[in-house]
From TrEMBL:
Keywords: DNA recombination, DNA-binding. InterPro entries: DNA_brk_join_enz, Integrase-like_cat_sf, Integrase_catalytic, Integrase_recombinase_N, Tyrosine_recombinase_XerCD. This is Tyrosine-type recombinase/integrase. Belongs to the 'phage' integrase family. It comes from Flavobacterium keumense. Residues 162-332 form the Tyr recombinase domain. It comes from the Bacteria.
Amino acid sequence: MLTATNYEDAVAESIEFEKELKSNSYQTVKPKVDEGNDYSVLGAIVKYNQYLNGESQYAHLRKDVTKGHIDEMIRFCRFFAKILKQRYDIERMRITDVSQHDVADFYLWAEDHYAPKSFNKCLAGLKGFFDFLIDVEEVEMKNPFRKYVRKYVPQSEIDTINKDEFDSILNAVDNYTPISVLGGKGERKNMYRPYLKDGFKLFLLSGGRREEVVDLRWNNIFESENKIKFFRIKNLKVTRIMKRETVYKYIPITDDLSDFLKELGYDEKRNTDEYILFPQRYEKSKTMMDVLSKSFTHYRIGAGVEKEITLSNLRKTYISWVNFEMGIDTPYVSSHSTNGVLEKFYLDPKILTAIETTALKVRVFGNKTP
């Protein structure tokens, strides 16, 4: 049965059908419905998506991965399918028929669309897709992405901010025009908010991620037996990855952070459920995160700071100063190591020691911050 609805298309389709018959020595074409592990290209991608989402029949092989990771891996697969579609009917094409020529086509496409780091990630993602088919679904084939030349990725510089640059950005919030003229239609947007300077300081002195800093509350503050104060908050990033609700991180309250919290009203507000940053809120937390990020860049430019730094560089600056004092114990403070966090407010001794030491020794910029 032809799918064409007019004569010209029917002629073209019949010619294509004749070519397909000849290429298969006039043997019956395999059905579109997947049988066993003999998948079409589209069927294989569907199976991989189910596997990544934990919907696979292989319960013992399920992995906890983020939605962002799943979306990215499936996006790479779809891009590959789009390249294949230029030469094949991917609803009929078997995944086992993917050749080195097809990989070469995709390789050239990816070179034009990705920077080296993303390029390597894309190709590695497709290698993982075929590894899944071979190792989990037991499709009998060689991995066509097993060998390829990776792109060289130069080591990136970790830009931190110094005290003079940070002070100039704070001054710009008071003195530089808050109006940003956006591209395209020339939309004008007011970048000023009354919580910007406090927000920037809180980011710098706590080293937290956006979603952590914006939602810090006074009752997140606890004391160790040695009277060292720290924030105890849910590690949202690890919680999303591990899908557990009991993963916490601990932010030591250093002397300069303690001084700043007192300026914000620690003595009166301690143990309350009030937000530390801008408690009289009229914006959602997500909106505040976006505003803080975009406004930091706006006022950084206004301050004449030529470094291409963003709000995230405040966290990098904090971790750099922690590393200056703590060395190999830095991961216990930055929460890049998630081992040893115990239930019911108890800390692993190594983490507790690192937090207490950080609280006593670390000062961002090596001295008091305004």
